[in-house]
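In response to a reviewer's request, we include the raw inputs and outputs for one of the modeled complexes. The two entities were modeled together in a single run.
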Amino acid sequence: MKRFSSLARKKERGEKRGGRSVLYYVLLCLFYLPVLSVLSRAFLGRNAWTALLGLLSSEQTLKVLTFTTKQALLSALFSLLLALPGAYFFGRYDFPGKRLLRSMMIIPFMLPGILVVLGMVVFYGRNGFFNQLLAYLFPGRTVTFTELYGFKGIVLAHVFYNFSFCLRMLGERWERLNPRLEEASLMLGASKFETWFRIILPLLLPTVGYLFTLVFLYSFLGFTVVLVLGGYLYQTFEVLIYIEYNHKLNFDRASMLAGLQLLFLAGVLAVQNWTGRNARRYSGELSYLPPLSLKRHRCRALFFLVYLVATLLFFVLPLLLVSIRSFQQRGQAAGAWTLENYRLLFREEFRFAVGQRLVSVVVTSFLLAVVVALITVLLADLVAKQRRRYRWDRSDLWLQLPTGVSFLTFAFGLINLTGRALPTWVLLIWAQVFLAFPLVYSILRTARRELGEELLEAAQLLGATGRELFWTAEFPLLKRALGSALAYGAALSLGDLSAVLVLGQGKLVTLSVAVYRLIGHYHFPLATALGTVFILLSLILFSLVDAGKLEDHV
Amino acid sequence: MNKDYLQIEVEKNYPGFQLVAEFTVSEGEFFSLVGPSGCGKTTLLRLISGLEQPDRGRIILDGWDVTAVSPADRKIGLVFQDYALFPHLTVAGNIEYGLKVRRLPVEQRRARVEELLALFEIEGLKNRNIQELSGGERQRVALARALAPQPCLLLMDEPFAALDYGIRRRLRRELRELQERLGFTTIFVTHQQEEALSLSARLAVMKNGRIMQIGTAAEVYCNPVHSFVAEFLGDANLIPCEVQSTDAGITITFDEATVFTMPGSKQKPGSYLLMIRPEDVMITDHTPLFTGELVTLEYLGHGYYLEVKTTNGLLLKMVTGKEEQELVKGRWLPLTFRSGAPKLIPIKAQVST
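The model returned the following structure tokens for the whole complex.
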């Protein structure tokens, strides 16, 4: 009896607090103080508004705004257009390998941006595989793709990054459209076209809108890709902020740009929130899907096969090529394999290009990733645990919001706030925890919600307490989610380039920075070798992830 | 009235499953397909609707061969088990949909929608979203939507399956009244024998892709041609027996000791199952056919359910009314059958399926 009443009392206390805690407010401060400091510098300083007006009317701002928006719109458009046919097959048919393909689709998500860039360069670069293929297919004619370093290349890389995730989300949404709806429409006398137009499209549209704003947001905030491929001609706000801050040391201008971007993104975030709510509205139950068979739907199955092969090539080849190239040497015949590039990783060449030795780069990256992942998971789990009894309301939104805040802005805000009073590594961990928190929190919150209070209460009633309760009930039940959360946290830390560049001041070199510098030095043999190591690391992290779950987290 | 309004003769093959069906439905009839899940009744319904194509055979609706006609052009209404209401349209939007895609002028559409809303007494729900409706309300909207374009034939796939017992009974009665009033031809699929018996003029009992028996509710309930039909439509005692014909009628032998004569009946001699419903087994004061010990006694509220172990080793199921006061387990009961109630099912028929 005693135990019953103590449980009841605990519940009461929790409800009185409304589910918020000191930790929640501490996190809010840690997350939003740097952002606020950027905003205050941008909008509250002396002569801030005149400077702001000047900035707003300047040709450069307009150019950057136009480019950033345009590439983000096109990236979102092409990602969705390419994803649509695939989503149809994933949503309407069952076929062998579907689960595997679906879980593979989150790989680009875990892949460091700089690796995507490296893959793009190796594949679509002037001497890349794609151009060699073109030369082989059209001998004698000069058909080449030379626009990787430019607008098209940037959009291509952003599509690469976002397409598979669009396919997965849209496919999962499509799966939850009751196939009976189509049949009901047919039975009521509508043609196939009319059914598509009046029923399917309106029901998919909220999700399409949601994904569109999401890809727009990611591409708008694009940094790594644009930094490498954009050169001096093409800059997103993020890149411009970085250049103003890092190269020109123009802090005021950087904060004004960051402030402007935040205002603009607030609008986008509002749209995203609205479309997200709409997208969840019509979600139904999963129903039986007919197997896609070559015999029964010949044309469709063939089309899907071609589509699948083409997209797989589009995705897998660039990364595969990075690994293949790492075992080849310039000037040698294509069939000859060598480990020379890997040997070079340990030589002076590497230190010369990167600034530090390989061991220190790997150790730095690894330690940083582990620490960031652990801290993030710990904090997120504590919040999730406290909040598991309550519907997620507005206060949760504040913890989710960092997804939409530019990472560079945050890193910049940190410096602005602390004035470098804290050691670099503290700032970096702070920044990366902030980056990883929304996703990690979302995973753990969902896991705790699915876990259900009843299971833990049952364990308590059976006599488990304290540490025992954790090890016998909570931990085994949450193991997969915790693994996922740690892996995502580590992957985001490994993939981060902007915070390390801004906060590390060139002294802290992670794997991402190393690959970035190697590309900058056009040192591709080394870049591919290091890239391969990096890919392997990412794949190991991916294997820890519960890839069956994504829909709730993004 | 057209007796052969709908003529069906189809075959459909799946890996490990074959559906063969042949029957006719007359105009204005309420016809049910009943059987356990997996018996092919929903597949048969989908063949009639045109959502599936038969491998062989044809479907003729009102003299028109619709076998190759697309579902959109068949003028057949279908109510799905989960209703499949369009979640992005209102109640009125759902009902109007079939009229809109058939390009009816706006005024006619509006009038028809109002008419149906009134018919189903859901005027108040007109502008509601589907998500805001209760199960019973959704059911009405689904029916109204299917009837709006005035289909030649209405198909219903277990439309009450998702509802509570009370509301299911009410809607069932309403559906029956509506069908009688408007006279639309209906094929109703269900796995519940009670629903099929109470609703339909005629019904077909299905098993493993075959139609076992077609007839009126009373026919299939009282005169099952197959032990499966007998057991599916309600509780039944099936007792193996031998039949001999005599000049006066037939004699039925359960074992050497128990002999039962049915004067005036005709039946080929041989091995049979004698089918007797529990409600037709009675406690008697006269010469009992069986005597047995009461081994199971369940109070049902309106009476009792009994199982009696007879002296010749049979376990007879029976139900009694409230009047039987002195039932105690272990009591010996003299039993007989209600006259005319026992039916004989040839054993050979069991082997063939």
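As requested, we also summarize the result in words. Chain A touches chain B at residues 178, 180-181, 183-191, 194, 198-199, 202-203, 281-282, 284 (CB under 8 Å). Residues 32 and 410 of chain A are 9 Å apart (CA to CA).
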